[in-house]
């Protein structure tokens, strides 16, 4: 006699030669409910004051850990200094492909409450937006990443790779969190790919009416210098030759009138090519011709600060030091230079160039920080998934690669060999962008919904295990 168990197995098995139907995971998700939950999550997260300095990121990490625990997801909090902690959480996959890290930072920059419409740590939801310091940079993206992780876990989505959530301390000042995590806890991470900040969507970026998602594939190198002039001290009432201040001023004037060459990286031309294909017409054709871009658009690009920074090396005076008293000429005076370098030029080559421009033995140059430019490959599934998901989520928009003019924690991930890409998955107006590191930072509910869809579809494309043996 056949056993009851065997009969049941026959009745529930798929017919011979057929496979279980593939699940449409988008139909399993209630996006409206996801948006409500993510908005409340972000509101609460913004109420945790993690201004850096001093940081206090441990409070932010504890908050994120409590949310994960409520969903039954384990996490690990790791500290590199008192009250300075990062968080690591992982959803395990089959291991068919290398782990994907979803990277954000917990700390935020300072805010001036008196200048804000809503208090910077209120997390207030009003005027169809969530208000607070870090809403864009970058707790908004961090909240979306966490919400996606929770949804994958709740639905028990089969994954072909581990998904690792990294919420890091101290990105805004010294990158202490990412360096500590990579140095001391790499065995918990070991990702081959990462999605972080660095790029975002900008309305009317290239011309009116065109929305562009600029996906960061690399970052400019960084050379921070202290330039010190030494001279004769004296009384401020009597100007004399060889004053340190005059020597420094003359050197700064030489730097001011020096202009680095217009040398757009390949990523910039590829972004223009994508935009040109979408635009069409004579303008679109010009955008797809690098030679014509250099001939016809160079002046226009140079006049736009962000575009200029993306197509040339930049040298920027960011501070002066050495004052003693209004009536004292100091024996030395210093200037701080923030130099950003495109791929193809090393920090040593740029240092040599600055020395040549200054050309004064009374000037000393001290390196405060030096990081080489690094670029991740464009023919990578993560870049493709972000591009496809962005364009699908916002019809009419175009997505392409850029070299970020600033630097993020991705600098250190790339040093580990990680293919890192940057996208804050929002489409921002100029006014909204002004809130980042400025006043009245906020994330619109529309952008929150957009970001959730971009991340969900990109991560499904990169990580869903659709093999017949995957659990259903």
Quick overview:
The protein has two domains: 22-201 and 375-463, Zn peptidases (Aminopeptidase); 221-260 and 313-372, Alpha-Beta Plaits (2-Layer Sandwich), CATH 3.30.70.
How would you describe this structure to a colleague?
The chain is an alpha+beta fold and 472 residues long. The protein folds into 2 domains: 22-201 and 375-463, 3-Layer(aba) Sandwich (Aminopeptidase), CATH 3.40.630; 221-260 and 313-372, Alpha-Beta Plaits (2-Layer Sandwich). 37% of the residues lie in helices and 25% in strands. It has helices at residues 4-12, 31-46, 57-70, 139-154, 176-184, 244-256, 266-279, 281-287, 290-303, 305-311, 347-358, 381-393, 410-415, 430-434, 445-463; strands at residues 75-81, 84-91, 99-105, 125-126, 129-131, 163-168, 191-203, 211-219, 221-230, 234-235, 314-321, 328-329, 332-341, 363-371, 374-375, 398-404, 419-428, 442-444. The strands form 4 sheets. Strands 1, 2, 3, 6, 7, 8, 15, 16 and 17 form a 9-stranded mixed sheet that branches. A hairpin with a 2-residue loop joins strand 4 (125-126) and strand 5 (129-131). Helix 2 crosses helix 15 (445-463) and helix 12 packs antiparallel against helix 15. The chain is globular and about 85 Å long. The protein starts with a helix and ends in a 9-residue tail after the last helix. Mean pLDDT is 93; it is low at 1-17.
